[in-house]
Design goal:
globular, 7 helices, 195 residues, single chain, Rossmann fold, alpha/beta
């Protein structure tokens, strides 16, 4: 039985990427083939050194769908997981991996999505609007920011005393709790998956 191979894309500290590496370490059906980053100083590279194949690309290369596609093909990648990857995915790559690119967004889409809505920008907006809940949305990637098919949403209650930093912490906890298992469930539910 051939394992499904995933590539994790990350631009920053990569706590979700690290959780995912741990999650799939023992999996008989899914393996992490490589970690790709557009930031040579990303904390995730240091934290995963010697644990996984790493590919570092420039922001210029990140715009080149054909270039990234060839890296994926060379490594027999079946799915791409965006774990805090801060570049727009080129259309050519989306066409090459239809319904095979999964992103996590730190809010309950369609609220607080779109261009520029990532990281603390999202949590500050949630805070400023005095929302009573926030959460995560795990979704497929299409040509438009944060508009792909939603696979799962999980909520977390907020209080008016929560600062943007506290909101971020609460949301990150549920990211770590659910992201990997939603990815696993989705991949294994697909017809082309190992049974």
């Amino acid at each position: 039985m051939k394992k499904k191979r995933i590539a994790i894309f990350a631009s920053g500290s990569g706590s979700n990427a690290i959780k995912m590496l741990d999650f799939f370490k023992k999996s008989k059906q899914i393996e992490v083939a490589l970690l790709l980053s557009n930031n040579k100083n990303a904390g995730v590279l240091e934290k995963t050194k010697n644990k996984i194949k790493q590919v570092v690309i420039s922001n210029e290369e990140a715009k080149n769908g054909g270039f990234i596609k060839s890296i994926m093909n060379d490594n027999n990648v079946d799915y791409i997981i965006l774990a805090g990857y801060l570049r727009k995915i080129p259309e050519e790559l989306i066409r090459a991996f239809p319904e095979q690119i999964i992103n996590i967004h730190p809010a309950l889409l369609p609220k607080y999505g779109g261009k520029g809505m990532y990281g603390m920008n999202v949590h500050k907006s949630v805070f400023e609007n005095k929302e009573q809940e926030s959460g995560i949305t795990i979704h497929l990637v299409n040509e438009k920011y944060d508009e792909g098919k939603i696979l799962a949403q999980h909520k977390v209650a907020l209080s008016l005393e929560d600062t943007p930093e506290e909101i971020q912490k609460k949301v990150l906890e549920i990211e770590h709790k659910y992201f990997s298992s939603v990815v696993e469930t989705y991949i294994l539910s697909r017809k082309d998956s190992p049974s």
